[in-house]
Amino acid sequence: MNHSSSPPLNQITILAETFRLLGDPTRLRILFFCLSEAKSVGDIAESLDLTQTPVSHHLRLLRGARLVRRERRSKQIFYEVADDHVSDMLVDMVSHIDEEDADD
User: Fold this and answer.
1) In whole angstroms, how far apart are CA 34 and each of 4, 55, 63, 84?
2) pLDDT band, residue 71 (cuts 50/70/90)
3) Which CATH class name applies to 9-103?
4) What is the pLDDT of residues 20-51, one digit of tens each?
């Protein structure tokens, strides 16, 4: 897709829902925490000072939007950012915000 054309309406709708999901600070914290390597639900909850129930809920939503993927290792499930598109977008947006702060 080039920059002068708009994606189809169904893709716009999915994109809007994805950005809505990303509008939650807790979900963003989870994504950034899982950026470098896969983490268990327990590790996510403990490190972000949350309980496992809301973490699991957020992960289910993020997984439904294909923003994270899960991997079972024996009895535990580990989550990581789904792919380079997602991680690049997150890192790029932080860089974008840093650039705006530098302009002020």
Assistant:
1) 34, 12, 13, 13
2) very high
3) mainly alpha
4) 999 999 999 999 999 999 999 999 999 999 99
Cβ contacts of 52-59, under 8 Å, gap ≥ 24: 54/26, 55/30, 58/24, 58/26, 58/27, 58/30, 59/30
How far is the C-alpha of 97 from the C-alpha of 18, rounded, in Å?
19
Tokens found for residue 87: 């991680």
Model pTM? 0.89
Name the token pair of 102.
């530098």
Count of CB atoms situated within 10 Å of the CB of 29: 16
Do β-strands 76-81 and 39-40 pair in parallel, antiparallel, or remain unpaired?
antiparallel
